[in-house]
């Protein structure tokens, strides 16, 4: 199959380069427009009660959009500050697009701040009006003036996404280039993976822009898909170029070496890409548009990287392959074979120690609390975050948990509504209820809860309100209600998503190995490393341990995008490495090596590649730890840990230990499945004669 895909690239390399150049120019030329179409909304469940309520609110007359200014640094009674604020307020009131400006409200908590609220007039020019008003308010004569809310906060989320991508690429790309130079020892060989990565990024932007034309694209999608595009491109190109250097040892003719590379490592890239795509398409099981779009976009990005590795890279190798030196001869017993030998001497002890380590790291997952987040997700340099901090210091009475929004299909004057409102006010966890007419037959009741939306108490309050009998139709929404519906959606759909991903992975790994036990072992070990990575993420971001080192604070919850995205991406990448390792182990076993020796030789042959690929991916994902969004930092940390654990603890310790204990049962399968595998088998190469057994592992 791979020969059919890449044959044309080998025969017509210049044409293939021109086609990919067009993809690159088109992707960056058009795709950057996606930054103007991003949305920060996540966590919706179509068809849920909260979603139905949100749609009804959207059909009702829109609520006023407001921006808020907080003036700090001097006493609220300072005459100079009051005069400057009064002058600014008077000028803002005359601006087009401004409906109302409040008088300055002094802080009763500290006495060191003034609060000014600006209501925007409905219309298409809200952003322009907000920016003009903010510019004038910033000129108030005070040590600090922060303005946030409404279109200003939306713009900050979008610009933060753009800055994070640029910063991550600027930091990670030079480091990746240096590492590639050290790995390959030559500029040409090192530059090829980066070139494929750049093409992958261009293709990613183009795909995201295309998705934005038919669906919402989240601000998080840019960072996540970009890091995935870079990581996989470097991963696949590293494998292909490394195999090309091996083939040059016995095939000095470049086209022949490229053909052999495609027939061996190219098949592995195809298979590995399928496993990552399958893991990401598992997100399609969820009705949440964000997760579904991430699954589609992620799978499409994998397809771009895989296609580039199988077409663009062979074309480049044909053109510049003569400048890439052949690989150096392998030592008979390398460091990875020695590690395997040590593990094989104490497989049970190694198994217990590694599982114990992984389990300990995963314990904080038991405290996982999902939320839609708040301005603490943004860096302290943004106006929105500074506004949040200023409110918490000077106006804590105005930072109550977000309201539970109740929509009653009845006029506000209906006497039954007043009686039902009293029942809502009597629900445990509700402090007050305000009524706002929203139409001739629609009334909004805003119930103020005592607990933040992410806490269980807020969910219990939502459930209690929904359970109240009413003489008219009632639907409940708000952040707490959305979280209740989202958690229920996860509880309903997560088992199906896991089933889809696990079954597909088992089938793909069976096609590779012909074994029943090895695919099951691979799934279990990958779940261990994933659980450990998520446990550390919860420990750092939700519980606040060492959060300051990553430029964030204790968030008390985990953004609802983090666990599912880290799970899908990390699982796919982990199976990637499983494919690299098992294909070589099976090759040595088919060549006649005994099970222990096959494991040691397979680990030795792939150890350097997997370690190098993991190191490069860690650098790529670590670039996003310096970004601004806390969820993206959390995703980056989760993927860094998952990859690092998978390439070290799992591949070097857990896999040799389990395969040693299984022995010849590694490759066992019932007769019908063996015959099926003979027809669908995917082998990386014809087995070579086994090398003499190292004394260490005899």
TrEMBL record:
Q: Which Gene3D superfamilies match?
A: Multidrug efflux transporter AcrB transmembrane domain
Q: Where in the cell is it found?
A: Cell membrane
Cite the SSD domain residue spans from the record: 194-319
Q: Which ranges does the record mark as transmembrane? A: 170-189, 194-214, 220-239, 269-286, 298-320, 348-366, 496-518, 523-542, 562-585, 606-629, 635-654
This protein's membrane topology, according to the annotation, is:
Multi-pass membrane protein
Against PROSITE patterns, the record matches this protein to:
SSD
* InterPro entries, alphabetized: MMPL_dom, Mycobact_MmpL, SSD
Task: Answer whether the UniProt record assigns the keyword Hydrolase to this protein.
Answer: no
Q: Which UniProt keywords apply?
A: Cell membrane, Membrane, Transmembrane, Transmembrane helix
Recorded hits in PANTHER family, A to Z, give: MEMBRANE PROTEIN MJ1562-RELATED, MEMBRANE PROTEIN SCO6666-RELATED
Protein family membership: Belongs to the resistance-nodulation-cell division (RND) (TC 2.A.6) family. MmpL subfamily.
Query: What is this protein's name?
Result: Membrane protein
The organism is Plantactinospora mayteni
Source species taxonomy: Bacteria, Bacillati, Actinomycetota, Actinomycetes, Micromonosporales
């Amino acid at each position: 199959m791979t020969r059919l895909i890449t044959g044309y690239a080998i025969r017509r390399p210049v044409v293939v380069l021109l086609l990919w150049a067009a993809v690159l120019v088109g992707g960056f030329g058009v795709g950057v427009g996606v930054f103007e179409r991003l949305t920060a909304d996540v966590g919706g469940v179509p068809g849920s009660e909260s979603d139905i309520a949100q749609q009804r609110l959207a059909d009702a007359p829109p609520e006023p959009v407001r921006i808020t200014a907080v003036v700090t640094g001097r006493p609220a009674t300072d005459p100079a500050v009051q005069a400057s604020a009064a002058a600014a307020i008077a000028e803002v009131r005359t601006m087009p697009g401004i409906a109302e400006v409040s008088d300055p409200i002094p802080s009763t908590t500290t006495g060191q701040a003034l609060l000014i609220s600006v209501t925007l007039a409905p219309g298409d020019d809200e952003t322009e009006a907000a920016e003009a008003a903010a510019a004038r308010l910033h000129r108030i004569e005070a040590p600090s003036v922060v303005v946030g809310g409404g279109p200003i906060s939306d713009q900050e989320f979008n610009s933060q996404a753009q800055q994070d991508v640029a910063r991550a690429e600027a930091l990670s790309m030079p480091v990746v280039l240096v590492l590639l130079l050290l790995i390959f020892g030559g500029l040409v060989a090192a530059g090829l993976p980066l070139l494929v990565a750049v093409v992958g990024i261009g293709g990613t932007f183009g795909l995201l822009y295309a998705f934005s034309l038919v669906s919402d694209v989240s601000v998080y999608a840019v960072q996540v898909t970009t890091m995935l595009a870079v990581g996989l491109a470097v991963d696949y190109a590293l494998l292909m170029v490394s195999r090309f250097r091996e083939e040059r040892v016995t095939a000095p003719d470049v086209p022949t070496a490229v053909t052999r590379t495609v027939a061996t490592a190219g098949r592995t890239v195809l298979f590995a890409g399928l496993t990552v795509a399958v893991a990401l398409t598992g997100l399609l099981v969820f009705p949440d548009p964000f997760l579904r779009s991430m699954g589609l976009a992620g799978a499409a990005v994998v397809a771009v990287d895989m296609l580039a590795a199988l077409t663009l890279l062979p074309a480049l190798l044909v053109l510049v392959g003569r400048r890439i030196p052949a690989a150096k001869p392998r030592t008979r017993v390398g460091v990875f074979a020695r590690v395997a030998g040590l593990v094989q001497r104490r497989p049970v002890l190694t198994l217990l120690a590694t599982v114990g380590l992984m389990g300990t790291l995963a314990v904080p997952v038991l405290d996982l609390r999902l939320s839609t987040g708040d301005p603490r997700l943004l860096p302290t340099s943004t106006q929105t975050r500074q506004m949040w901090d200023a409110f918490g210091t000077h106006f804590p009475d105005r930072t109550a948990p977000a309201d539970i929004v109740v929509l009653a299909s009845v006029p506000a004057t209906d006497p039954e509504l007043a009686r039902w409102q009293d029942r809502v006010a009597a629900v445990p966890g509700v402090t007050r209820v305000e009524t706002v007419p929203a139409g001739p037959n629609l009334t909004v009741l805003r119930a103020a809860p005592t607990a933040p939306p992410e806490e269980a108490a807020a969910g219990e309050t939502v459930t209690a309100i929904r359970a109240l009998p009413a003489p008219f139709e009632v639907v409940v929404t708000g952040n707490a209600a959305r979280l209740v519906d989202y958690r229920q959606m996860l509880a309903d759909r997560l088992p199906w998503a896991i089933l889809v991903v696990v079954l597909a992975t088992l089938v793909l790994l069976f096609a590779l190995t012909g074994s029943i036990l090895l695919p099951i072992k691979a799934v279990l070990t990958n779940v261990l490393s994933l659980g450990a990575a998520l446990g550390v993420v919860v420990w750092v971001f939700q519980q606040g341990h060492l959060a300051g080192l990553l430029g964030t604070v204790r968030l008390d919850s985990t953004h609802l995008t983090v666990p599912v995205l880290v799970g899908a991406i990390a699982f796919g990448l982990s199976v990637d490495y499983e494919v690299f390792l098992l294909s070589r182990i099976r090759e040595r076993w088919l060549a006649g090596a005994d099970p222990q020796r096959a494991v040691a030789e397979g680990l030795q042959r792939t150890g350097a590649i997997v370690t190098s690929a993991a190191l490069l991916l860690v650098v790529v994902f670590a670039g996003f730890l310096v970004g601004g969004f806390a969820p993206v930092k959390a995703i980056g940390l989760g993927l860094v840990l998952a990859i690092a654990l998978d390439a070290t603890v799992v591949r070097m310790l857990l896999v040799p230990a389990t395969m040693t204990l299984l022995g010849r049962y590694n490759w066992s399968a019932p007769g019908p499945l063996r015959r099926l595998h003979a027809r669908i088998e995917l082998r990386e190469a014809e087995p070579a004669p086994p090398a003499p057994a190292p004394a260490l592992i005899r």
